[in-house]
Write a structure and sequence with these properties.
Length: about 400
């Protein structure tokens, strides 16, 4: 509250930080880390014109703005940060008990930017359920602004009135804003259906996947390797498919902005953990990725995959997993306080991610898994708390 008396004990909303590292300083470090990733993504994507001439013709994108994909990234960042910081300042001015958190709001804006998918993949079909213009300008700007506004107001401010945030604001706001496309997000039948049948034609992971041209399971589609190459290769040259290892680790040209370069996320994420190691919940990230790798190996063996590395590369380095694992799953306000609770949280997040991506065929499964695990945090906070001595 802004008008407390001197003899009141005031407890602010999470995160609660004591010691030389203040909340503002932690947010400043996080903002710098996210800004670096944003700049790297913009540089990698700048040579790509979105949408390409071929995509404008194929999808009849009469209202789309053709501009460098990297420029869309930077404009998204400016819009998301501006909306979040502006809404935070406005609420602080009109509501006396709304604390001004400029750095936290700026961080939130960048997370919204980096968790939004951009770029039309080379293998996209005109019959895809999700409209292609949501992945380019100017509609991408509108959606990012809406997610930033709703996330800041509803899921950061209003949700925090009770003293606890139950779900990650960026993840919850993204699901809410993209509700009109809920069928393409959740319904497995739409994922498996071919593009000509009105579906996404996504290969199934609930069966043997192969490298080369081997089909996946019994659904008759091309190999999962070919699918990933078509999804993430440079759309300016759709006839040339990129090397899968390079695409998944070094540069992708579609998907979460923050996952454009998995290597950049790993380097920046680890650097932030080292600088703020006592105040960042790195146990969640470690438990998450160790579990992801273990579960990928188990499923690859159980389904008799032709290539272990294909499933492993996908599960670990898909943009939603790599960025979420470092920068969203460790959100201080919606994750467990205790070390043991954080480890359980990371393992549970990995299990749900793998199950959703394998059996629901929703390849952004980590975002849904995060929201589910967020709701389990009140229970996980009871794990690992030491009982006091005496009465």
């Amino acid at each position: 509250m802004s008008n407390e008396s001197s003899n009141e004990l005031v407890v602010k909303t999470a995160p609660h930080i004591a010691g030389p590292m203040t909340k503002n300083r932690l947010m400043q470090y996080t903002f710098i880390a996210l800004l670096i990733i944003t700049i790297v993504s913009a540089i990698l994507w700048w040579p790509v014109t979105a949408p390409t001439n071929a995509e404008v013709t194929a999808f009849k994108l009469t209202n789309a703005w053709q501009m460098p994909l990297g420029a869309i990234v930077l404009l998204n960042a400016l819009i998301a940060i501006g909306v979040a910081v502006g809404a935070d300042a406005f609420l602080h001015k009109v509501a006396s008990d709304s604390e001004l958190n400029t750095w936290s709001s700026a961080v939130f804006g960048l997370i919204v930017t980096l968790s939004y998918s951009l770029g039309v993949p080379s293998m996209a079909m005109a019959t895809d359920i999700t409209p292609q213009d949501t992945l380019t300008a100017p509609y991408a700007f509108v959606y990012v602004a809406l997610i930033s506004l709703i996330g800041l107001v509803v899921f950061k401010k209003v949700q925090g009135i009770g003293g606890r945030k139950y779900v990650n604001p960026a993840a919850a706001a993204k699901f809410l804003v993209l509700l009109p496309f809920i069928g393409s997000v959740f319904l497995a039948k739409d994922h498996f259906a071919s593009a000509t049948a009105g579906g996404l034609g996504i290969p199934s992971l609930a069966g043997a996947i192969g490298g080369g041209t081997l089909p996946i399971g019994g659904n008759g589609v091309a190999s999962f390797t070919t699918y990933l190459q078509g999804c993430y290769s440079n759309p300016m040259n759709p006839a040339k498919l990129g090397d899968l290892n390079s695409l998944m680790i070094l540069e992708k040209f579609h998907g979460w902005t923050g996952g454009a370069s998995s290597l950049a996320v790993i380097i920046v994420g680890i650097a932030l953990f080292v600088i703020a190691r006592k105040y960042v919940k790195w146990r969640i990230t470690a438990a998450y990725f160790i579990s992801i790798v273990a579960l990928s190996v188990i499923l690859s063996t159980a389904f008799s995959d032709q290539g272990l590395m294909v499933r492993l590369l996908f599960e670990v380095f898909i943009g939603s997993s790599i960025f979420l694992g470092f920068f969203m799953a460790t959100d201080p306000a919606t994750t467990p306080y205790t070390g043991l609770g954080q480890i359980i949280f990371g393992i549970g997040l990995a299990i749900l991610t793998i199950l959703i991506q394998t059996y629901m065929n929703f390849f952004g499964g980590s975002l849904l898994a995060l929201l589910i695990m967020n709701l389990m945090v009140p229970l996980l906070d009871r794990v690992g708390i030491h009982k006091p001595f005496g009465r």
